[in-house]
Amino acid sequence: MSAVDQLPDEVLSPKDSLREWRERILNWVLRGVAFFGAFALIGGVRLRLSDGRVDYTALYLLGYAALLGAAIARRMGFVPRAMILLGVLYVLAISGFLLHGVASTGWIFLFAAVVMTTILFDRRRGVEALIGSVGITLCVDVGFTLGWLELAVPAFAGSPSIWLTDAAIFLGLGTAAVASMTFLIRRLESSLETSADLVASLNRRIQERERAQSALRASEARLLEAQRVARIGSFEWDLRDRALWLSDEMYRVVGREKGDPPPPPGSFLDQVHSEDRER
Q1: C-beta of residue 99 within 8 angstroms of C-beta of residue 152
Q2: Which residues on adjacent β-strands are paired with residue 237?
Q3: How many CA atoms are closer than 13 Å to the CA of 86, on its beta-carbon side?
Q4: Any residues with CB less than 8 A from the CB of 244 and at least 6 apart, and which?
């Protein structure tokens, strides 16, 4: 059986294929974060314990436990697992800003959240995540400016102008990332749609060929049955190759078993009654 004959009867729609692709991306990301996050967790816990920030240590442990649970519990569903991943990224970003201000790794976590939102959902959600991320940075900046928030490590404090500059840079990079991811996902959707149409067309051709073959086999069976009832056989004589082909009933008419080599064409008249040969 060829590879074409083994094509599935039901073809996934482009939306279903894209959903499956996103689920695989989520699984890979969660596995990678669960593995490499263990090393980051050890380093982060040691730093926070040295700073005396037990509250952030507990936050790191809870965040890693949530990611590990999402990586293991696949039956939880795609959306809840994706929201856990994005929620942990935002929590790490905010905690980074509160710890180290503008010089923190919070920008990296926010950027990762925007990219993952675009990949796992769509462009609209990605734009919303980008706007929300910029809003988070501005809110933190206002909090520091008005004295509502205090840095855990004052040495990393930054002026409001630095916050605004970094927020503008982040907005530009985030916009480029969302646009790039949207373009790639649309190209992927187009490729999936083309592939689905091609597979569906091949399936239709295979089904038409199978119906034609089935009809041909049924016709051959009816012909053989008609010859058996009428005790009339048929044969083909290739004059060029001097080859003789006999039907099943013709084998019985000439007194041979099916599977025996056909008689030589020259001996065929020997099977005819002597009074009928002149006819």
Answers
A1: yes
A2: 244
A3: 23
A4: 235, 236, 237, 238, 262, 263, 264, 265, 268
